[in-house]
Amino acid sequence: MSDEKVDLVVIGSGPAGLAAACEARNLGLSVVVLDEQPAVGGQIYRSIENAPSDRVGILGADYAAGRALADGFRSSGADYRGGATVWNVTNQGVVDYVVENRSNTITGRHVILASGAMERPFPISGWTLPGVMGVGAAQILLKSAGALPQEPVVLAGCGPLLYLLAWQYLRAGVAISAIVDTTERAGYFHALPHIVGAILGATDLLKGFKLLTALRRSGVVFYRGARDLAVLGETEVEGLSFVHRGNSKSLAAKLVLLHQGVVPNAQLSLSTGAEHRWNAAQLCWEPVTDEWGRLGDSVLYVAGDSRGIVGALASADQGRLAALSAAAVQGVVGDLARRAHPVQQQLARHTRIRPFLDALYRPSVQNRIPLKDDVLVCRCEEVTAGQIRGYVKLGCLGPNQTKSFGRSGMGPCQGRLCGLTVTEIIARERGVMPGKVGHYRVRPPVKPILLGDLTG
């Protein structure tokens, strides 16, 4: 076990982490970047350094843009440690991690948490059957290994990533049976007040328009406004059923990809005991920070999608701002406002379209809160929606109590996947807002580790 000290520890090597490290190195800080993956890029730029050119072409220009950021990071002089599982972070900047079966400790004068996002759970009947995957997981397989479905696939849900993967699959020659689009008609009305911001972010709006146009021209079948989704099959996926314009439909498929947006991966910030609030627009928990991403008066910062969903470019901006602020606190930067101003302006441009997207692609209630009692919510401990409701009837007030009632949230993921669903089920049963119900208390080890790793 080692115990070393550096100016800045960055956890995560996605856009926010890479940009933060580059900025800090430009200011002369010593920087160590820890990441669970063996190579830099995070989920958005996964395998960007070694992806073959044909795969980069399929994934598109936004993915290819990550290469410049990765190259800048490699030449920055930052110390990158891949394959590192961070299992503990303290408010004093102590970070415990395991790499190559050995436990290590490093202390940063400041620490930036840039752990990114995760796909929102899509708990409907049959969602745990073999043959069901998240769209994000399917895209990771494409980015990291070039893996593509060999049979026609059904994509279901809503949000930019759903359409982006469909577009990438088309370019790769994958047959798409249909896109079952769950975007609600009300979403278009709720998005209207934010249309000015979307137009000001014309670049992103135009990208989305071109992407959807390409899908329509390709002949892909859309079922817009679909509801009452259920995955068919007993032991494996056989298809997807849903209601479209009042008519019941079913599609045969051996692979169904579900998606209804992403949410912050906030396990690390939650584990520090920092205050988090319910974001009613994005329907998730987010850490309470100052404008630089700092958690209270601690030495910890949060940047990128783990602070609130903003996308790749804005994540990089937040990473730079967090690094600038940390450097200012350490006395390296004396003109923080002047240095930060252009980055703050850029961040404003990169986030203009976000309220429009949040309103338009707000996941429907029935796709977040299972109506059927037999739908699994906690997959690790096999706890159903009906059991959670039963706990509430017995007096359960919040997610932490569900652990005592029935081990919900006590499996290997420690509530990372089921936490939002459990919170919303309890809130609905109690007739209160999710913010009143609270979230799972997250404690180290944040990720599963072996006892042997601690003594190795």
Structure notes:
The protein is of the alpha/beta class. Helices cover 38% and strands 22% of the residues. The strands form 6 sheets. Strands 1, 2, 3, 4, 5, 6 and 19 form a 7-stranded mixed sheet that branches. It has a 5-stranded parallel sheet with strand order 8-15-9-10-11. The model has no long low-confidence stretch (mean pLDDT 96). Residues 376-427 form the BFD-like [2Fe-2S]-binding domain.
- Average pLDDT, rounded to a whole number, is 96
Helix/strand class: alpha/beta
Tell me the helix content. 25-40%
- Give the biggest sheet: 7 strands, mixed
* Rg: 22 Å
Number of helices: 19
Strand content: 15-25%
Give unreliable regions as ranges.
Answer: none
What is the oligomer described by this structure?
single chain
Shape: globular
Secondary structure: number of strands: 21
The N- to C-terminal Cα distance equals 8 Å
What layout of secondary structure does this protein have?
Elements: E1 3-11, H1 15-26, E2 31-34, H2 53-59, H3 61-64, H4 66-74, E3 79-81, E4 85-89, E5 94-99, E6 102-113, E7 117-119, E8 132-134, H5 135-145, E9 153-158, H6 160-172, E10 176-181, H7 185-191, H8 195-200, H9 202-217, E11 222-224, E12 227-232, E13 239-244, E14 247-252, E15 256-260, E16 262-264, H10 267-271, E17 276-279, E18 284-287, E19 300-302, H11 312-329, H12 336-350, H13 354-360, H14 365-368, E20 376-378, E21 383-384, H15 385-393, H16 399-406, H17 419-430, H18 434-437, H19 451-455
Parallel strand pairs: 1-2, 1-6, 2-3, 6-19, 8-15, 9-10, 9-15, 10-11
Antiparallel strand pairs: 4-5, 5-6, 7-16, 12-13, 13-14, 17-18, 20-21
